[in-house]
Amino acid sequence: MNNEKIEVIEAINCIKDPKVLVIGDFAIDEMVYGKTARISREAPVLILRHSDTKIILGAASNAAHNISALNNGKVGVIGVCGKDYYAPILKKAFKDANVDYSMLIEDKDRPTTTKTRISGFSTQSVRQQIVRIDRELNEPVNTKTENKIIANIKKAVPNYDAVLLSDYNIGIMTDNIINCAIETANKYGKIVTVDAQENLGRFQNATCLTPNQPDAEKAVGYSINSYDDAIKAGKDLLKITNAKMMLLTRGDEGMIVFYDKNKHFSINAFNKTDVFDVTGAGDTVVAAFTLALASGASPQKAAIIGNLAASIVIRQFGCAVTSRDEMIEVWENLEENNFVHL
Q1: Which strands form 191-196's sheet, in the order they lie side by side?
Q2: End-to-end C-alpha distance for the chain, whole angstroms
Q3: Which sequence positions are flagged as catalytic?
Q4: Taking Cα atoms as reference points, which of 233, 255, 259 lies closest to residue 310?
Q5: Is residue 272 helix, strand or coil?
Q6: CA atoms of 218 and 199, how far apart (whole Å)
Q7: Which of 179, 203, 225 minimizes the C-alpha distance to 286?
Q8: Which one of 27, 110, 255, 280 has the fewest beta carbons within 10 angstroms of its own beta carbon?
């Protein structure tokens, strides 16, 4: 085993140490399954005989779950849930995932964000999704809730090693909350990473943003059709956000991390063949990347660790997590490192 592989294994072992605070749009995915019974007499629709229901942590909740799986539960969350049927279900899911949810704010005027997927199957078929029901409010949180979130951020940040902002455009990430989170993290010298889908320019002075290519294209205002385009976009994004680093994920084209103004490091995708579902892969990347940075890893090693974690979870259906042991095993078995320093 060469020295580079050994160094990455040592870095993976270190990600168990940092404590991470996740601020963002928390949600659950409710997966309802049933076996097809017959066609209804009331309407031309299937009747399903319910078989089971599965609750999965989604959106920013998935990032927190990934962190918990990698650092033995040293993760807390700040956000909002409703005072409804699904709030206790979200909290139980957090508890089962070993995530501290004590700083969640309850808002009776907002639903607990829930995406219900109803799937059916017959004896000789696979499960197929029939309909999805979303319970969410995309409007910004009200001033009262915003102030409570800001108070929790100021109180909590000093107790963590890193802060992750996870924006799914469900109303939690107001300008005041973004500014407070980043300013407080910087005040106490904490790593602050951002996983946002739109309006990347709102997130000023973070340690690192982790956009995928479509979101990067929206932010810079032009298409990324080549590697050179990607390099230009990464450098432009650093200027737009005034971030110290930029991690641009490009699907099966791998990822590029930009750092120290004009330096960048390119990594090929570790897994292009055993891809079953990319759902939540971005959450896994930013979770592992944040932990690695907070544990002292270089931008290059942190990006490798994020890439490696994502290459594992995309082999599973739905939002999934991995472990340090699994990551080390996959890394040891890679035929080549397949990354280059440019």
Answers
A1: 75-78, 20-24, 162-167, 191-196, 208-209, 245-249, 255-259, 263-267, 339-341
A2: 23
A3: 283
A4: 255
A5: coil
A6: 8
A7: 203
A8: 110
CA distances from 148 to 25, 35, 144, 188, 193 (A): 15, 44, 6, 20, 22
pLDDT value of residue 342:
36
Other C-beta atoms lying within 10 Å of the C-beta of residue 88: 12
State the pLDDT at residue 340. 47
DSSP class of residue 100 equals B
The pLDDT, as a whole number, for residue 16 is 95
DSSP code of 142?
Answer: P
Q: Scan for tokens 């397949």, then name that residue.
A: 338
pLDDT of 155 reads: 98
Collect the ranges in the chain with pLDDT lower than 50: 273, 275-278, 337, 339-342
DSSP 279: T
The pLDDT assigned to 332 comes to: 83
Please state, in angstroms and rounded to a whole number, the distance separating the CA atoms of residues 4 and 12. 12
Q: What is the pLDDT at residue 218?
A: 95
Q: What is d(CA 197, CA 167) in angstroms, rounded to the nearest whole number? A: 7
Residues 6+ apart with CB under 8 A from 325: none
The beta-strand segments (E) located in 40-185 are: 46-59, 75-78, 80-81, 105-106, 114-121, 128-135, 162-167
For residues 322 and 280, give the distance between their C-alpha atoms in angstroms, rounded to a whole number: 12
